[in-house]
Amino acid sequence: MSSHAKQRTCIVCRKTDTKQSFLRVVRTPEGQVELDPTGKKNGRGAYVCGIACFEKAIATKRFDSALRTKLTEDDYGRLKSDVLKTL
Ligand SMILES: [Zn+2]
Fold this sequence. Notes:
The chain is 33% helix and 20% strand.
């Protein structure tokens, strides 16, 4: 257990938790949007509580506003295939 587990908020359902099971998507300083399985990458991050909210966030383009960027189809495709690898 981390001594300073950070509170995370799902950008879709607003559930808060400190769980590692939250999926983090990050916009790196280079402007790349990617899944962050370690939770340690630099950049602006957005959390979803699980795969259901991840899919909703994709469908409603919630990551665009959460990360203050415009995700391309390539970004969405990469995120989806990366999430499948974590299951
Ligand atoms: Zn959620």
